[in-house]
Amino acid sequence: MLNVLFAVLSAIPGLAGKFLDWQIRRANAELEGFRHGASIDLEAFRAYLNAQVETNRMKLAQNSWWGAKLIVLIAGVTASVHFGLVMVDSMCPASWGWGRLPGKGGCGMGIPALPPPYDTYQWAIVQSFFLVMPAMPLANAVSQWLARK
After folding, report:
1. Beta-carbon neighbour count of residue 79 at 10 Å?
2. Strand, coil or helix: what is 104?
3. How many Cβ atoms sit within 10 Å of the Cβ of residue 45?
């Protein structure tokens, strides 16, 4: 189809050159539009990447503070260990004979549960370690997926 059109245009002197110049200008305009759009996309990607780098720097600075690690160590580990010991003490059968004390139920270690309201505090700490923290990457991924355009 294009060959036929080119043959007809070449029969008319000077018209073929104008047609080809017009095609070249049109192709150059499309190419320039693509270059402009690609440069805008590149700038947007660089801005997004810089924002991600700064966010990760803030997270790293926040997680590297020794005070937070100490709080996690003192509050989290002790609450989790005590909670686990109370569960083992109340759940294991008496036939195992783990240091069974006279008059005590379960394994007989005699580990008492915390009194209210400290038991709810302990449960919140244990939940944050074993339920909330493992679910955070999933929650972040879902929020990023919902925020995408």
Report:
1. 20
2. coil
3. 10
